[in-house]
Amino acid sequence: MTIHEIHRINWLREGKNVAALRSNAIRGDFKIIEVDDEIAVKSADLRTIHQIPMLIAS
Hints:
Mean pLDDT: 86
Strand content: under 5%
Number of domains: 1
Radius of gyration: 13 Å
Helix content: 55-70%
Structural class: mainly alpha
Number of helices: 3
Shape: elongated
Distance between the termini: 14 Å
């Protein structure tokens, strides 16, 4: 999941300030990995084949 998606979901659910706080926390707590389009497509293929759900912060 991209920081973009998490930030947007948090913004819609709880507002811009909360989204900013959570996005900053994610950048501090997790290793951010750059993903090119080939890796993104392969990841989507594997998630679909193995029915791995998308984890969404709530």
